Amino acid sequence: MKNNDLSSLFNGFDDEDFQQMLAQMSEEERAEFKRESQQLFAEVAEMFEAFDKRVIHEKLTADILAQTPDEELVLTVFDTLAAQAPVGLSEEEYLKTLSPERRAVYALYILAGEVDNGGFNQYYYNTEAEAAAYLPEACELVGAPKYADLVRRANACYENERLAERQDGSLEVFCDSYRDNPLEKFDDEFYLLENCRPLDQLLMRFIRANPQAFVG
Predict the structure, then answer these.
(1) Among 22, 30, 147, 168, which is 20 to 30 Å from 186 by CA?
(2) 174 and 119 in one domain?
(3) CB-side exposure of 160: number of CA atoms within 13 Å?
């Protein structure tokens, strides 16, 4: 995205609250806010461009894993596992075919992405809880016992409160399901754990310590 595109987006934003906020700023504050916004948009655009251009391997080798930077390792393994999923096989059935090591990385990468983006409510909604039963074991395997305890309690809440019955597949009901949702307390605990022991770092170290589990 070019800077002139960013300027158009910035100037064309007509949300009333946003415009009121701008009106309360000085000329210097508006200029600084616009500069920071343009920089942020440029960084996000660059991130998505790099994401779209990433190489997805049909299978992994020891050399590929060794040469992959730490910050790209978990996504590289996940992409390969996702690419290897047979067409027509459900997520639940595919998980059964994976070794514990591969299943752990696959399931926990999805968990982290969904919860970071929209909490446990989004995780269960988007995945239909197909991998939920594997999460405690996966956490234990990668050396994350506190995460294991957390997902056990979140799974129990999801089942006991029959939260799946709140959903009908519509966006409106999904958004409404966040109201007074008992899963919210687990979100806060997850984010605190992420700050102390980021899950992607635990997964990266697990892959580095067990490369042969992901080769082939």
Answers:
(1) 168
(2) yes
(3) 8
